[in-house]
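Here is one chain, start to finish.
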Amino acid sequence: MKIARVFPRKTVASPTDELAFFTEPPRIGLPEITEVHVSVAFSWDMPRAEWLEHQWKAVGVPVKFGGPVFNRQDVADDRPFVPGMYLKNGYVITSRGCPKHCWFCKVGDLRELEIKDGWNVLDDNLLACSESHIREVFEMLSRQKERPAFTGGLEPSFLKPWHCELLAKAKPSRMYFAYDTPDDLAPLTSAGQMLHDAGFKTSNHQMCCYVLIGYSGDTFDKAEQRLTETIEAGFMPYAMLYRDEKGLVNCEWKKFQREWLRPKIVATKMSMRGE
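Its structure:
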């Protein structure tokens, strides 16, 4: 089957082949297709996705509607991962879901998938998987031509010394941990120490951390404290601004986020603290 995949927005992870589209069907030059999949990652993209669905129905082939936005905590998502289908080649998902069920996250229960080749791991919580699965993932990564990256986020409370040994051997270009709420600080600090013991250094900025900001009850002072604590734990922080289902963001929070999102600015803040 020749499936056109249609996305309401383009990201760095979007596929790049000729059957990946981000607009309505082209008037001329549309390759022969047998089916259309409209894939939606974020709830705030639903209006445009629904518009695109309507536009692509005019092509005259079956149109299916789905994507990560439809994931729910009470539904186990065990769909097979197909490299290059909905993500750019090199991006890989070896498991879906997470046992934590945090209030701001909609992923379902943990499910291990068949491991496919790739180097940028996007699992929801890879470290929650079985030891055999994790070791198979790292064996797969050792065969790749690119250095691995863990941009899906690693949960610090699940990190163990043997994970750190695997990470050190893999020599990742980047690995992103997560500091979402205040009770994540102790696990993050412990993770930073374990990684340092395994040979990682703060100065090379391999150790990164997503820091959730701007949710209900958060303040600029509280957010800056968490971001500073992330630096003190040995990680380069990346501020991730919380969005509700409509995708609305406060302009002041957006401005605050920019100060803690750009690597050069954050690296300067780290150097000022002597990190």
